[in-house]
Amino acid sequence: MIGEINSRSPEGPIEDKWSSHKFNMKLVNPANKRKFEVIVVGTGLAGASAAATLGELGYKVKAFTYHDSPRRAHSIAAQGGINGAKNYQNDGDSVYRLFYDTVKGGDYRSREANVHRLAEVSLNIIDQCVGQGVPFAREYGGLLDNRSFGGAQVSRTFYARGQTGQQLLLGAYSALMRQVGSGSVELHTRTEMLDLIVHDGAARGIVVRDLITGDVRSHTAHAVVLATGGYGNVYYLSTNAMMCNVTAGWRAHRRGAMFANPCYTQIHPTCIPASDEFQSKLTLMSESLRNDGRIWVPKDHDEGRSISEISEDQRYYYLEEKYPSFGNLVPRDVASRNAKTVVDAGLGVGPLKNGVYLDFADAIQRDGEDVIRERYGNLFQMYERITGEDPYKTPMRIYPATHYTMGGLWVDYELMSNLPGLFVVGEANFSDHGANRLGASALMQGLADGYFVLPYTIGNYLAPLLGESTLDENDPSCSNAVNEVAERTQKWLSINGTRSVDWFHRELGKLVWNFIGMERDKNGLEKALTEIPSLREEFEKDVRVLGSADNLNTSLEKVGRVADFFELAELKARDALERAESCGGHFRSESQTTDGEALRDDENFSHVAAWEWGGTSSSAIRHKEELEFEHVPLTQRSYK
Amino acid sequence: MEDTMTLTLKVWRQKGPMENGRFETYELEQISPDMSFLEMFDVLNENLINNGEEPVEIASDCREGICGTCGCMINGKAHGPEKATATCQLHMRKFKDGDTIIVEPWQATSFPVIKDLVVDRSPLDRIIESGGFITVPTGSAPDANLIPVPKDAADAAFDAAACIGCGACVAACPNSAAQLFTSAKVQHLNLLPQGQAERWSRTEEMVEKMEEYFGSCTNHGECHEACPKEIPLDFIAYTNRDYVKSKRKNRNLLGQD
Questions:
Q1: What's the pTM?
Q2: What residues of chain A lie within 8 A of the CB of B187, using their CB?
Q3: In this structure, are residues A361 and A372 in contact, taking their beta carbons and an 8 Å threshold?
Q4: CB distance from A52 to chain B under 8 Å?
Q5: ipTM at complex level
Q6: pLDDT in tens, A284-299
Q7: Which of A135, B27, B102, B256 has a CA between 20 and 30 Å from the CA of residue A432?
């Protein structure tokens, strides 16, 4: 049973917390670093930057990825940009303003001390990336360009065409491969973590499966770092890559690590709607499109005419009408929820009536097609490739989709979970975005954790362990965990039911989307809590996984991931039910203002919900970490 | 709803690297033209599982054309018939009702088949490991605006950096050469001021590592035709120039020819 939760945030003025904490933390002497072994799971922005930096410092690092190369992690797909409080544009930005905007944007559900540190190190990240050769956009004078992103009032976003994530990941990947080449990092590709080894209450290693040979074995170390991304694929359809999953984090949760705020999910407003039942994933169209596109639906439910015949007064520009000052640029959660409202009211467009228009006709008339092509050419091309429609001639169709998960494994100020020795970085932890993440902040957080936070804090944990050896791989904590994984893997093959893993994943996704999606209410959540477990029972009896466990078997990889999504989905519903307020991406229809906006309940819910595994998701125990706001006054967000 | 398609697929099946492979023929009905090529494979695999047959292994992840995981030979072309398009971004509207589609894995000695359509591309990582980086330990970089980079140079470096590492260039090349991949990676860094300190050693290491694994370039240009990011062939020329220079330059003499 876990006692009181303490974030261990340092004392003192917010500006000095991180620098004084860095001074107060214990150091590992350079000559002693090689005596410590660290496991890093995941090689996206957070994992690659952490493994590279730890290797550079002299630690013995083992890095694991289930991809064939570290460069494939889904960080690569981020389009928009990365925030950095450089104030190069001289428009009033500062570390404090980035901190303030992030706490407010997170709807006051994040930890002030963490967010301030994030804003501080945002400066170093930009320097580091440019030093590595990340080709950020530049002005003609050769200096870096910035843009305003996601409704920010200052231009603090650095970007690399529409491929910022790719370029940042290639930077971190190159730093990682430099360490692999020098021998300080041992890289294990196509190797998936399937359990955490806990010994005497501390994380001491992991169990992995080689995805080519099926070999299951353990690796032990002095500390384990999870950089394993978010759980958006619990919805089946999302903008996440096909393989993104919660398994590493969930297995750690089952071994005692608390899972925080699983109900917080960001639903991104501008994605291409599904075209049929076999849609496998949804594609994000950059948010920047809302700078020039106008969002509308026809006013008539039975509108059957072509778009050009629908006159202005027969179009419902719902964001412009409801939010005159922000218009089409309202924050992501507001834009998403309003799209759902009009589609649910039967006003949706497209063959399945499951989208809204994002129309560039006015912008093209105003600025000319060439200007629009310059700004969005690659996005328009991508849209045309996927839909077969030309957005220069006909409006895009868009609809919200799951994009990012703010919840994740609970960590303290040092990014360590409640299990000593288990660190969690990037999207996999819950720490910095509260209930809603601002645009261009995910890349910032992943790299902040990996380059500039974890490499300091992990030393504070390791220093006192000098002289201790890693756990013997013959220890029962290892061999038992290895056996459990091997048995679980065989179990899936022996069920031999009638339906594919994907079928169950799709059905689970529908339940999660319908009941724990953009809008949640008590009845729906209670329904989810009966339907998810009953579908899970059917899954455990009736799933069909063919082939064997001793070679590449994608269905076998997927079945374990989907099993963990089932358990997570149930916890997510419980978390959403308990949090009887609306905040950020968590909208409870019972808790809204008279204008239909998210209404927080600061008196009862100004806390982090951290769940302790109790043997099943239904018996998980909810703990609270109270949040205090000393610097950013709590206000109701308004975008009217 | 548009009309659906009926297709015949001839798919390469191979149990493992040392096994013999063969083509299997599958008939598929009711394929929507709006589906992606990989979603069509999802349908095929769902059908196979329902019939008790092992699904086809085919790699993919982001399905947005950026991670570089996917890729196979479709009707003899790397990534299929549409230009500048990775396999995951190819849609079925590019095919016709009644078509026969032949699907094979990348073919190159340096990319052995793991299973069915999945190959091992790890030699590409070995090339990066040998020199595809700028040595800038975390925390040691100067202010990002200290060194202006002329926009033209920055844009050229970006054109090289757009490579997604899918390996189509190798698969399309009659010699299985990796010049386009390697030169894109070399020139991304060599074209930038930050990359100058290691320019000659980088070029030498990466080119020589490439030659350990891959065939030689004889200027066919098939790589550029197949490249989903349309990486220009110019980078191969730049890299050849840099390689020659790396061999004759006195590295003690900074900035002097």
A1: 0.97
A2: none
A3: no
A4: yes
A5: 0.98
A6: 998 889 989 999 999 9
A7: A135
